[in-house]
């Protein structure tokens, strides 16, 4: 089994899901379970913190894409990626998804940007 | 590279005289993390460029994932160096009828799967697929110096 560690922290209406270890065809099931739980409990404004992620394959990436689409199009939420290291961002660039998925250098940048967005949403 | 159908032995020709020692590992889906470690350790042993080792691991993992997901419960990796290239062959006992050039075009923007062979093609200098009654072999070649993407 790929060692995968998941933990989450709340920031207002947003949840940061810290993903570390390795994400592949087997371990992505844990990510799915965790995402479903977070969305059910706290809503669909999610930042995936990939700082501690050492490996991600395209099956895990497909999972991320499917949640990103679902949350942005039907549930009024979002899914952003933060802190992807070279090794995991490489597969994002090769597939062209780095240009489509919202990506931030780190969690702080993702939180700052999505806070602005939330505030703008509130104001409108 | 066009997929070829063959009744011949599933493995490509055995390594020739210029080939280094072969590294072999049988694996299941659950053992993919060990396979990635195996690939990394052996690539380092081949004195492969550190930047390329990560790429090799990505390519091998993608093809190996397809093998145990669509091919058979067990699959096997064979890896060696040949004329300064690294060759990795992944064999499973499943048979399929591939498109003319599987993974030959980029995944659609909304793709939620099926990106594995495309990714391997972007990384490797050559990808060759042979499938026949004895199973499927995907052969990946990485040149030690070239970086394709």
From TrEMBL, chain A:
SUPFAM superfamilies: SpoIIaa-like. PROSITE patterns: STAS (PS50801). Signal peptide: none annotated. Pfam families: STAS. Residues 4-114 form the STAS domain. PANTHER family: ANTI-SIGMA FACTOR ANTAGONIST TM_1081-RELATED, ANTI-SIGMA FACTOR ANTAGONIST TM_1081-RELATED-RELATED. Belongs to the anti-sigma-factor antagonist family. This is Anti-sigma factor antagonist. It comes from Actinoallomurus vinaceus.
